[in-house]
Specification:
Elements: E1 3-7, H1 18-31, E2 36-44, E3 52-57, E4 60-67, H2 71-86, E5 92-96, H3 104-109, E6 114-117, H4 130-146, E7 149-152, H5 155-161, E8 170-172, H6 186-189, E9 198-202, H7 211-219, E10 227-231, H8 239-247, E11 252-256, H9 261-269, E12 273-276, H10 285-292, E13 297-300, H11 303-309, E14 313-316, H12 319-331, H13 333-350, H14 353-367
Parallel strand pairs: 1-2, 1-5, 2-4, 5-6, 6-7, 7-8, 9-10, 9-12, 10-11, 12-13, 13-14
Antiparallel strand pairs: 3-4
Length: 384
């Protein structure tokens, strides 16, 4: 029975973000196909009493690591302890992200096979200072060379990684999403919204995601009874977050971060359009999920977003053009219907979970020297 260990996330069941959702989906899929699956989970405590503990969840071994730190230090401590534990266990190590790639040297020394999803180009994000950028840049190189196989979630990321490693070492596997064909109205009405009468953004509130320009462009004109919903944590100790809050008026809804998936699905499904301002990264999970929900997209014009959204999006380059794209989206029902149809077609073509998860299984089997796929077992691969 083949074994795989998943490192690099906060853990499952998923409640934080795209990597956690992916880890949960892949773990359930592989467990249902006869794999021994272990997923590392982070637990922050005041004092470490039991460094490593395990429990079973839906056929998966949850390996909980206690760390008595906060913030970035906690993440590094967690990554190091995961590597120490994984080195003592059999199986392929799938590492999600490269921020602690320096620790992979121990896994290589212990002769473990490593597949790393290299995520986006973190060191290019403007929010980081010189020290953090240097750390991420260094770890990108280390992760690229210490891993046996690299996974890029976007062709442009694969092109970037090809400047570090030969293309033969790189697999391109996108992110997945489930089609959303219906959703109750109650969650959005509880936020004071009406179906089709709002635009929605779901992203971290950061400059490279263009959240402030999205708010400013929406507020530039009177939008009648249409609202803008901006999901994401706001911390008034952060200047950019204060600027977003100050730019928002009564027509901009700021509910904070919402982790209830039923509510998030309803917000996407009933939106007039999805606002996507990301400028750095690859196949952003939130954009893929918007396509699967049939959202027309208004996206920043860059090679990442154009490959993902294709004909499903209207594209903007600055606040002026963004305001114009919003005008078009609110004025033309036929345009919205066409882009919505294109969104579902693109999601079905390129971002089906079954295709994504099967591709990861093939990569893991390849590291084990196995070419045939595992037979399916029970229904444990089905999402919760």
């Amino acid at each position: 029975m083949p074994s795989i260990l998943i490192l690099g996330t906060r853990g499952i069941p998923a409640s934080h973000g795209g990597f956690e959702t992916f880890a949960e989906r892949l773990a359930l899929f592989l467990a249902g196909r006869g794999w021994n699956v272990g997923v590392y989970c982070q637990k922050e405590v005041e004092r470490v009493s039991q460094r490593v503990s395990t429990e079973r969840w839906r056929g998966i071994e949850l390996i909980t690591i206690e760390v008595a730190s906060k913030g970035p230090r906690a993440t590094l401590e967690f990554d190091w302890q995961c590597v120490l534990d994984a080195a003592r266990r059999p199986g392929v190590c799938l590492v999600l992200g490269y921020n602690g790639a320096v620790f992979l040297a121990w896994l290589r020394l212990m002769r473990r096979k490593i597949i790393t999803n290299m995520d986006g180009i973190e060191w290019r994000r403007p929010k980081w200072g010189p020290a953090a950028r240097s750390w991420f840049w260094l770890n990108e190189w280390i992760g690229a060379w210490l891993s046996h196989r690299l996974v890029a979630d976007h062709p442009a990321i694969a092109d970037h990684l090809a400047t570090r490693r030969p293309r033969s070492a790189i697999a391109t596997i996108a992110y997945g999403a489930d089609p959303v064909t219906s959703a109750p109205e109650e969650p959005i009405r509880a936020l004071g919204l009406e179906p089709g009468k709002y635009l929605v953004s779901i992203a971290r509130i950061e400059p490279d995601n263009n959240i402030l320009p999205i708010v400013e462009a929406f507020r530039r004109r009177d939008r009648g009874d249409v609202k803008l919903v901006v999901l994401g944590t706001l911390d008034d100790d952060i200047a950019y977050h204060r600027a977003v809050r100050e730019a928002a008026g009564s027509t901009v809804v700021l509910p904070g971060a919402i982790y209830d998936q039923a509510t998030v699905k309803a917000l996407r499904y009933h939106a007039r359009a999805y606002m996507h301002g990301h400028t750095v990264g690859g196949t952003n999970p939130s954009l893929v999920e918007a396509l699967a929900a049939g959202n027309m997209v208004i996206a920043h014009d860059n090679r990442y977003n154009r490959w993902v959204a294709g004909e499903a999006a209207l594209y903007f380059g600055d606040t002026d053009s963004l305001s114009e794209r919003i005008d078009e989206a609110l004025a033309d029902d036929a345009l919205v219907a066409r882009r919505s149809k294109a969104a579902r077609a693109r999601a079905s073509e390129a971002f089906r979970w079954d295709d994504v998860l099967t591709a990861y299984e093939k990569e893991a089997l390849r590291q084990l020297g196995v070419t045939a796929a595992m037979p399916a077992k029970a229904d444990r691969a089905r999402p919760a």
